[in-house]
Specification:
Blueprint: H1 7-12, H2 20-29, E1 39-40, E2 49-58, E3 61-70, E4 77-81, H3 89-99, E5 104-108, H4 123-126, H5 129-140, H6 144-159, E6 170-175, H7 179-188, E7 193-199, E8 222-228, H8 229-234, H9 237-249, E9 253-258, H10 274-288
Parallel strand pairs: 1-2, 4-5, 4-6, 6-7, 7-8, 8-9
Antiparallel strand pairs: 2-3, 3-5
Helix pairs in contact: 6-7
GO molecular function, one term: hydrolase activity
Protein name: Dienelactone hydrolase family protein
Domain Dienelactone hydrolase: 64-290
Length: 291
Amino acid sequence: MCDEFTEADVATRREGGLNRRQFAALGAGAALVGCAGKAGSAGEEGSDLRERMVSITTEDGVCDAFFVHPSTGRHPGIVMWPDIAGLRDAKKIMARALAAEGYAVLVVNQYYRSSPAPVLTSFSDWRSEEGKAKIAPMREALSPEAVTRDGAAFVAFLDAREEVDSSRKIGSNGYCMGGPFTVRTAIAAPERVGAAASFHGAGLVTGEPDSPDALLDETKASYLFAIARNDDARQPEQKTKLREAAARAGCEAEIEVYDADHGWCVPDSPAWAPDEADRAWKRMMVLFGTL
């Protein structure tokens, strides 16, 4: 999986990312990327955004998720898939920044079959032996079939919300292990999902029949595949195979290797690279502008 760094990788990144104190300060009032609006509770007056935890019934249970959107109007819906550390403060801040751009953003707890969020409080928690042991069985439940079922449920949830403009297409974005889940969301609801963005995604090209690249022709979405330079070094053929698959499927796809390492878009990752994260964010804004 993409989230399994070598010890050498980790050692080179010890100075990167935000420590917990810095991240707490950021979460209190600053935007991570883009221009975040002021978040408020569902009943608070004078806020640019509204946010709350919601429950979504799926075929496999009840998923808890974070839902944030502009306080007025109807907006394109976005399904956000977290990285291996799951739904936590980092993802909520990223969702607020995206919502402030005019989207209704649903950040899902992909581990809902096993535990409510937060499963871990930061990416660094997963780097511990305890964190890895905790996550391992939860990952096993995330089969391609399970993720596709979930994607259908999440799209249906957004389409039923009064805050979502159902006359426009839905988008999806995902980080690390969530990258290929964006493709499976597009597979789950091809008539509804119009754009998907994968950032340092893993498992996009596996060589298996159910590999996301092999299934692009089952979707009707446009794509952004933002690849980390060290992921590209490990799997240099990935970008070429993605381009070939998109061409066969007739999908518009922007595929680029960024000058940053795996995890660069996520602020509590050791590889966080703000400049390249901002560049990737801007490309996602162009993609989602087509919804």
